């Protein structure tokens, strides 16, 4: 296998000039109200577009990204873009970080200083079809490509993995598919278990009722991306203002439910992510995983029951009855509403399930120290089979501890 090729982010001035022209020519919808209850707040969106045209320093954001070593690797005929940041100290532990949607590898940059200082070798790839990684024919290939990146390309026979959103689904599949090589996983979204309704707790019943309601109130984006991705891509790939509206609607909904995006992200945070999608033209290819894995259809078997190509344990399709992930695992519940009992159904060796006090859906950006600390605690101490004392952290700082081994929490 060929050695990775060094990579530097560079965008043609013509692409940026075309972006400015399109922003200037934005045709705003008539009658739209400055509110969020019907979608994106038009007042905020107009201000964001104005910042994009006059004030946003794309060059400085590129320079931040290019400060970290980046590479392209060819694996099984697929090209993967990734950052590889070596840790400090002796024998740094290799840790794979996988982002979700609508995100990019840039989301993890605030974690780099925290985790590299904690003696982690960080490998941060762009998911296929996102930013600088070309798409693959089917999302089912991603865990295998990630495994070969870590073992064959980078030479790590054992490694840990963290992921959020789609990155959590990939991480869960890595643990299922490569238990001998994956030392432990840390995720912000638990794998989907098979349930016996007779055994559900009250909290789990409430969680499932909430999830059913969200299919009606909050999941239009997922249904469109799963069922009509090419139609949606044609619009968003042509209009930067439309692309911005589609992305910030989810960033606000998932992280700033008080209505004020400024309390969680600067405009430049948002614009960096949006611009990465725009200049690479990857919003459409980022939808592919929604179609491949029927994402957003949790509890809706009509979307996945007859599809063998969908990987069990992802957001939509549950693990087969009796199957659990055996790799040591930690779940950090930042914005995911599942109770700890739900997570215990999917993991045979759940070391930690923590309801995090803050952070939202993008904790690497909003609470990097908090997320890095939880990752460090798990891989430094919790990812050891012998003598580990499991814990469930509850709101208010309470801990439930037990000396059990090899079971639930």
Automatic annotation (TrEMBL):
Keyword Transmembrane (UniProt): no
What UniProt keywords are attached to this protein's entry? Aromatic hydrocarbons catabolism, Hydrolase
GO terms for molecular function, please?
Answer: hydrolase activity
UniProt keyword annotation of Ion transport present: no
Q: Which residues form the Epoxide hydrolase N-terminal domain?
A: 6-108
One Pfam family this chain carries? Answer: EHN
Hey, which family's this protein in?
A: Belongs to the peptidase S33 family.
Q: What is this protein called?
A: Alpha/beta fold hydrolase
Q: Which species is this UniProt entry from?
A: Actinophytocola gossypii
């Amino acid at each position: 296998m060929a050695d990775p090729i060094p990579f530097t982010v560079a965008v043609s001035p013509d692409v940026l000039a075309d972006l400015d022209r399109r922003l200037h020519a934005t045709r705003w919808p008539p009658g739209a109200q400055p509110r969020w209850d019907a979608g994106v707040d038009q007042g905020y969106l107009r201000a964001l577009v104005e910042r994009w045209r006059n004030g946003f320093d794309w060059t400085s954001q590129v320079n931040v990204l290019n400060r970290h070593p980046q590479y392209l690797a060819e694996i099984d005929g697929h090209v993967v873009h990734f950052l590889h940041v070596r840790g400090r100290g002796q024998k740094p532990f290799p840790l794979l970080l996988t982002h979700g949607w609508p995100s990019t590898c840039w989301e993890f940059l605030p974690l780099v200083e925290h985790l590299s200082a904690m003696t982690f070798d960080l490998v941060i790839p762009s998911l296929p079809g996102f930013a600088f990684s070309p798409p693959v024919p089917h999302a089912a290939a991603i865990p295998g490509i990630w495994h070969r990146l870590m073992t064959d390309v980078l030479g790590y026979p054992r490694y840990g993995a963290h992921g959020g959103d789609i990155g959590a689904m990939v991480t869960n599949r890595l643990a299922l598919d490569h238990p001998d090589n994956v030392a432990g996983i840390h995720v912000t979204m638990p794998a989907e278990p098979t349930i016996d309704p007779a055994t559900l707790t009250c909290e789990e019943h409430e969680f499932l009722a909430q999830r059913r309601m969200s299919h009606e109130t909050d999941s239009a984006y997922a249904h469109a991306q799963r069922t009509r991705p090419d139609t949606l891509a044609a619009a968003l790939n042509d209009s930067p203002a439309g692309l911005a509206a589609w992305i910030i609607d989810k960033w606000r909904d998932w992280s700033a439910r008080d209505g004020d995006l400024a309390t969680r992200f600067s405009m430049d945070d948002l614009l960096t992510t949006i611009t990465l999608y725009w200049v690479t033209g990857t919003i459409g290819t980022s939808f592919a995983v929604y179609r491949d894995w029927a994402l957003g259809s949790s509890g809706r078997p009509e979307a996945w029951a007859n599809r063998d190509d969908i990987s069990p344990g992802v957001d939509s399709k549950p693990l087969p009855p009796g199957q659990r992930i055996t790799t040591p695992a930690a779940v950090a519940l930042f914005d995911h509403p599942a109770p700890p009992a739900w997570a215990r159904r999917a993991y045979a060796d759940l070391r930690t399930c923590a309801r995090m006090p803050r952070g939202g859906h993008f904790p690497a950006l909003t609470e990097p120290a908090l997320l890095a600390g939880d990752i460090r605690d798990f891989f430094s101490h919790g990812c050891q089979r012998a003598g580990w004392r499991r814990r469930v952290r509850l709101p208010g700082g309470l801990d439930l501890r037990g000396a059990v081994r090899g079971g639930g929490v």
